[in-house]
Design goal:
It is an enzyme of class 2 (transferase). The chain has about 325 residues and is an alpha/beta fold. It has 14 helices and seven strands. The chain has two domains: about 1-110 and about 220-315, Vaccinia Virus protein VP39 (Rossmann fold, 3-Layer(aba) Sandwich), CATH 3.40.50; about 135-220, Putative methyltransferase TM0872, insert domain (DNA polymerase, domain 1). A seven-stranded mixed β-sheet has the order 3-2-1-4-5-7-6, with helices on both faces. Strand 2, helix 3 and strand 3 form a beta-alpha-beta unit. Helix 12 (about 220-235) runs parallel beside helix 13 (about 250-265).
């Protein structure tokens, strides 16, 4: 079934990412969310034989597609099936201690959305899945059928930012008393029934926020991001850069806060004449405001609309 689909992920803000990473031809770069290899192709193209690109993705279909797309650069590209949370361990295993640039594009790929059997889309009926790593056992079906009403309310409110979270959770809990919820179509209809008619005409598909919330919970997307950023900044070489594209306000908040802490980590009270906590800046935020797609890009790629790009540049102390 999967072979009928081409793994596509139109690279968001491609020019802005390439410019922001300030690629050195002989540098070492990591694409922690390889996808179809769109961004990676442009990075690899700019590397000489002395440069290196490590691509990481937990989706088997992405690994296969990116391998084909990047085949012409096989002398400088290494692809690993894993989660970017394991980046430091992966690099250690390759004998790499520091890198010149890291990219994370946290969006769901077009392939994952368009391939109905993956269960990410509320537009087509398919088994409730939503796993980015199909090697894991837990699926969206488990969340929808076995989380308590209170737990469902929390994740729909927090990760979906839906004001009807409580109503949606109540409808889900009531429906599953009769039979388990098995498909995306069933879930989308239940969500729709929880939202008052006058609100259904605005703000996109009524199931969009809940599906997003379940996907984020299932794949631990926010926790993995929060736990990983500091370590990734630490392995950047002097003048190395990390670029992160987010699609959700909570993701963007995590990135913004982590970059700010790395730039200004001092915890001393403002009235202290000198710093005594000893925490030194790791560099600077290269994008004071989030970079957003151009109007033109948003016209031809609707999935770019909610994206934001932030960039941090590493400055190492001379004694590091």
């Amino acid at each position: 079934m999967e072979d009928e689909f081409e793994f596509k992920h139109i690279p968001i803000m491609l020019d802005e990412v390439i410019h922001g990473l300030d690629i050195k031809p002989n540098g070492i770069y990591v694409d922690g969310t390889l996808g179809g290899g769109g961004h990676s192709y442009e990075i690899a193209k700019r590397l000489t034989a002395g440069g290196r690109l490590i691509g990481i993705d937990q989706d088997e279909a992405a690994i296969k597609a990116a391998g084909e797309r990047l085949a012409e650069f096989k002398d400088r590209v290494t692809i690993v099936r894993s989660n970017y949370a394991q980046m430091i361990n992966i690099l250690n295993g390759l004998g790499i201690r520091e890198v010149d640039g890291i990219l994370l594009d946290l969006g769901v790929s077009s392939y994952q959305l368009d391939n109905a059997e993956r269960g990410f889309s509320y537009m087509e009926d398919a088994p409730l899945d939503m796993r980015m790593d199909r090697g894991q056992e837990k699926t969206a079906r488990d969340i929808v059928n076995y989380y308590s009403k209170e737990e469902l309310t929390r994740i729909i409110k927090e990760y979906g930012e839906d004001k009807f979270a409580s109503k949606i959770a109540s409808k889900i809990a009531a429906f599953r008393e009769g039979k388990p919820i098995e498909t995306t179509g069933e879930l989308a209809d239940i969500i729709k029934s929880a939202i008052p008619m006058k609100y259904r005409a605005t703000g996109g598909h009524p199931a969009k926020r809940t599906f997003q919330a379940i996907r984020i919970e299932l794949n631990r997307e926010l926790g993995v991001l929060e736990d990983s950023i500091e370590g990734m900044i630490d392995i950047l070489s002097d003048n190395g850069r990390i670029a992160i594209i987010t699609f959700h306000s909570l993701e963007d908040r995590i990135v913004k806060s982590a970059f700010k802490r790395a730039e200004s980590p001092c915890t001393c009270p403002p009235n202290f004449p000198v710093c005594v906590c000893g925490k030194k800046s790791k560099g600077f935020v290269a994008s004071r405001k989030p970079i957003v797609p151009s109007e033109e890009e948003m016209k031809w790629n609707s999935r770019a609309k909610s994206s934001k790009l932030r960039i941090f540049a590493r400055k190492r102390e001379s004694n590091e």
